[in-house]
Amino acid sequence: MLVKVDLHNHSCLSPCGDDDLTPALLAVEAMEQGIEILALSDHNCARNLPAFDQACQLCSIMGLFGIEVTTVEEVHVLTLFEKLKDAMEFGKFIEFLLPPIKNDIRLFGNQLVVNLEGEVLERVERLLITTSGISFGEVVEEALSRDALVIPAHIDRYANSVLANLGFLPDLPYSALEAIRLPVQAETYHKTILTASDAHSLAQVGRRSCFLELEEISFEGLKAGLCRGLVSYKS
Question: Which domains are seen in the chain, by residue range?
Answer without folding.
Answer: 2-233 (3.20.20.140)
